[in-house]
Amino acid sequence: MILRPGSSLSVTSAGSGWPPAVFDPAGPYSEPVTTLAWALLLGGTAVFALVLAALGVALFGSAALKARLGGEKAIWIGGFAFPAVVLTGLLIWGLMLTSSLSATRVTGAEMRVKIIGEMWWWRVHYQDAEGRETLRDANELHIPVGKPVLLELETADVIHSFWVPRLGGKMDMIPGRTNRLLIQADKPGVYKGQCAEYCGGPHALMGFIVVAHTAEDFARWKASRVPARGEQGRGLELFLSSGCAACHTIRGTPATGLAGPDLTHVGSRQTLGAGILPNNPGTMAGWIADAQAIKPANRMPAYHQLSAEELLAVSEYLVRRK
Amino acid sequence: MRSETGFDPALYDRFPTKGRRPKGEEDELRRIWCKPKGWEYLTVVNNNYVGIYYLGTAFLFFLMAGVLALLMRAQLAAPMLEILPQGVYNQVFTMHGTVMMFLFAVPAVEAAGVLLLPQMLAARDLPFPRLSAYAFWAYAVGGLCFFASIFVGLAPDGGWFMYPPLTSKTYSPGINTDFWLLGIGFIEISAIAGAIEIIVGVLRTRAPGMSLDKMPIFAWSMLVFAVMIVIAFPSIILGTLLLEIERAFNWPFFDATRGGDPMLWQHLFWFFGHPEVYIIFLPAAGMMSMIVATVAKTELVGYRLIVLAMLATGFISFGVWAHHMFTTGMPPMTTGFFSAASMAVSVPAGLQVFSWIATIAIGKRSFNAPGLFVLGSIVIFVTGGLTGVMVAMVPFDWQAHDSYFIVAHLHYVLIGGMVFPLFAAFYYWIPMVSRRALSERLAKWVFGLMFTGMNIAFLPMHLAGLQGMPRRVYTYLPGQGLELPNLISTIGAFMLAVGVSLFLVDLARNFRLALDEGNAGNVYDGATLEWLPSALYSTRSIPVVRSPEPLRDDPKLAEDVEKGRYFLPGSATGLRETIVTSPLLAEPQYLQIMPGPSAWPFAAAIFTAGFFLALTVQAYSFAWVSAVLTVASVLRWLWDTDRKVEKGEVDIGAGIMVPTYVTGPSSHGWWAMVILLVVMAMIFIMALFSLAFLWSNQPSFWAAPPLGDAVLISLLYGVAFAAALAARPLLRRGPTWPVLLFLVSTLASGIALWLDWNGWNATGLGPEASGQGAVIYALQALEAFALAIGVLMAAYCAARAGRGLITLPRSNTIDLTMLFLAYCAAQGLTGALFGRAFGMP
Fold first, then answer.
1. ipTM for the complex?
2. I need a labelling partner for B340 at 20 to 30 A (CA). Which of A52, A140, B317, B532 fits?
3. B698 lies in which domain range?
């Protein structure tokens, strides 16, 4: 059986699509936008109904009503005065909201993470308050609830765009620039995100997740980010001898490749292939054997040469990297 | 009554003339504007034929891009389908957008202009028939070759917006991207040729008396359309040029690692890309305004408001481009400005919608085919406009941007704002060119399927976008609630397609080309001049226009025109000709002699297409041969033009005498050259903007040659400018003088450019070194290109002088070369000074 992305994906808890993500905000950087979206949607529907009513009157109305509608005065009112007033109000609201949500207002109390877009996955570099790197991970961002997170968004290749609709708007990752975005989750949970800027090839399969923990859970998670030491075994041997280490790092081992995701804690991730597969020994083995069939054109070659037994050994080794 | 040109408006009272016209006059017209036979269908230049070819080709692209859309909808009907593999899907969505925008929408409205404008203005043809033919053939051949790239898997796959660095050599090494850059760059040239034609046509070939306030709204909309093309398209022409140069020669315009900036592309692209939407919408709105009034059997309410609204749209639309870039990290001040402008641009659209509603209100209710499409268009367009206001709100756009919400929004705007009006126009104007009108009965089905299908297809996409579905995805994961909206969208898309197919059936059954005579005629009782009885020479005589709706206000007009009781009832010179009138009040100024059919525009178009195609597939020797053949064909086609006319003054009716040869600022050639120079200046200004934009990133790294060079360079360009300008007055002393002066001018400009280049070269800054270097040498390359054309023009003047073909004491050929060479000098000087100014520490 061919492994299909999304098949029995355990992260489906991240959303059934209803209510739509934009209408299901989970933090202060998405909440006001949802209010705005409702206002726009309802207001827009009302205006649409008014225009339809005007059209209805123009077609079927009484002669007196038609005569009222059929002059330049009606055009000025409907086509100019009304929109001018409504739009001015909207504009003021929009301008205020823009400035209050922008990452130009940073207090210094935020948690800081640098996220670097790659074709077609994400590097996640946790930083301390001074901006020094503390931990490297990939395709999954862990945050504590109730605390704003300042993301520094960069790209290693082409333009990508970081988007977790339930936590905030999107922000592009552009070569030569560092863009900043604030997000925050107020409830623990898993929030789905996806690259929003077309970046070629499997852009459609460039997902990721944000995991929000309670303060205690987050502390526990943070404390567990220590690489296992001194572990030996067939899985690691195969990992090193098959060429995996050329692209991947596993801290505490001789594997120090930089082209692909850091795998030090790969076993603790909820997804594989950048947010598209659940993570277990089976999917891990399937991914290693033929990542090209699952996510065509991604940079991970297929490892057809590994025997079933070898595949299992490597994948079991990897899913143990908690 | 005031006069613009000294023409006495009282002369109009001589029309309609009394008495019978001489026998044989009409036969002569028919002979001069004869029907093509056999191969001559390729060499026709008459707007009736070119317009139909043009519109037919554009519609073909609509169908083909529509098929691509169906393929995409099939792939997205359910999650993780494998109907279109990833690589193919990426090519298909790129082609769908590109073909719809560049090969369907803009050409279709331009084609409508070519077909309809001369009839509406009662001109015999557009002022540059060979240019229209060239523009059409270049577009048709180039467009079809471009489209064919998808059949061999070489179609571009970087999205219709082609953002670098995804489209750079590093990330798109194949020639797919080059197909886009060269193919589209080339088709833009054809759009600009058409725009020049339309501006001069609308402003200079209107029927006598048709002052601007009596001009049909469609002509107004085409005028604004063409001016917008002239201002907006240079930006994308420059953009494609720079990106192609970056790919071919490694000049880092958009490479952030070497002082370039990928954001520069986004600015260049959207400075064209957003006005583009209004470029497509305005002519369609112009058609709507005409159709709505005729269908309601009344006059258009708010004519002046609509004109005002169109001008405002044209103006504001150049201040909204960055609303495509709200998520690129621009400061809130900047996004605020573009947000405000984006909202403001919806006001004039609202004015037009309410004018249509007002017109419907005072008129008669009618649900005939054009009427239905007009109503459908209003409903759909208003929906798209309202979601447009939503995405103009910056915080909402942070969510909606690049999601399926935008896909829904843009299709509502474009289908409501352009496709439905175009279908209304098909039903409305087909009786003008076909023996039979289309079927009203079938039209109800076509409309019903298209309207319902459209809404079923695109309404759920709003939801999919808000659920988090990004655009440009070849598939999506299950379990996110996206299955249902996508399946519904697919069903709607196929319904829409069935509606369009039914329209094709109708066309097959009822559309019978009748350009010469015997068309179905004024089925809907239109009141503008295109409904006068006409043949290939347009109307028998050219009426005096006394109101905006002449056919309604003068019931005898059609008969009088047909009997030759107005201007130019026959041919005054025995050649193809039309009356050139003044721009504001349309007073007759002179008789333009028009070129007839010729194979050379066709040949030039084929070779131009060959040149660009050969460049794309890197067959360079073939490319250069094509380039030489193109230039030779163009010069050959020009060679017949600008000849001495035997009769200096002719009677254009009722004893009114006008000259047959005019030079200087009132000639149509001068106007076209000035517009061409505006296009070139816009390209150059966008290049200067590029330099300033890159400089604003990292000014400290910039180099510059010593400022002292600038003195000599300025002096030389000054000489070149003065020498060019002196050519016109000195032609009186014989054609040798201007030729010598042109030689001086090109030499001086050439030396100045060489000094400029040398100065930069001495600093050690190469074009591959940095963004600054790349733009500096690009400025010089633009100047070198302009100068090369200038040299060709000067040589052409010399050749004509040698053959005694320069008219004395004034010559259009000399005038236009003078303008061009003076421009070259001015452009060179600006580039040299600007480049140095930005390099200063």
1. 0.96
2. A52
3. 664-837
